[in-house]
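User: Teach me something about this protein's shape.
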Amino acid sequence: MRLQVKQVNRFFLLATAPFIGILFCLMLPHRSVELNMNTSSYIPSESIHESSQDIVLQLNDAQEVVKSTLSTIRQTSELYQKTLETTNSIVKTTISQALKPEYIYNKRITSKLGTPYEKVTSDRITIELFKVNPGVYRGYAMKVKLKDPKAMKMSLGKDVIGGSETTAAAVQRYNAIAGINAGGFADGKGKRYPLSTTIMNGQYLTGFESSFKDLFFVGLDKSGKLIGGKFHNKEDLDHLNPSFGATFVPVLLHNGQKVPIPAQWQTSPARAPRTVIGNYKDDQLLIIVIDGYNENGGSGATLLELQGKLHQLGVRDAYNLDGGGSSSLIFNGRVVNKPSDGSLRPVPTNFLFFK
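Assistant: First, the predicted structure itself:
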């Protein structure tokens, strides 16, 4: 739209330039009259009178031209102002119309979640917190709109491979507004290592590992969009330009369709505290954290239940993150969920969100 305003300015200059030129020319003297009392160059008084009248007539003509020019300039200026106002109105209308589908879509997906009971918004991020209670299990949903790709990142436990810390500790250490637990892990020699392919700041922590069994990779690309799935060669993952991400099992939704859940993950355990992450078609994120009192299969949600819930909410892609005692949701300085261990479990990776 700046280009349109510049074109209007050029039109104004082109329209007024001829009149300014005429005015400038008319202001130049057309004839000079020299009075020389030398008898050899004496000019009769009648000639002087005629010259004076001629000059007066030319000045009158010039005055009329000036009046006409000023009138035209005034009209052109008014036309310019009206054109500018019309252009600005068109710009506002265009912006309003462009935002309308986004507003309608967001209203539609939010209506399925209910009314948010807490919200944080800034020029970098908007987070809305909802309660999830279909009657079979209880938990929380966090809808996240990233306006800045750097408003979300993944932390590594105490910033070392093999280190671990609670989500609350990571949130506090990085001064984040919210956080959830991320990928799975394997313990060894008193340390806790991220499971399989893990990327931090665009770099592979321990190299690329081809997806096997039911493992998948999930994270964000450098433009702030959720990426994930199974990758059997490094080039395929590199092609997505990952910024960070972790690994766990299994994939729940792909392109809005339910992905078959392997039998093993339907029964071991059947019910449990869960953490899942997904995205809508407008790239907003939806995170659901489900409460449960233990990891023995008697409380929490099944993966099939969560898969159905995410599908009903209109989520496009969804991934199951580490659950059980690892499930953690920190928001606005407090622990929102009820960790099944009775306290937060130290984990090697956490997804953090920044205001």
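Now, about its shape. The chain has two domains: 2-103, 114-353. The two ends are 31 Å apart (CA to CA). If you'd like, I can walk through any region in more detail.
User: That's plenty for now, thanks!
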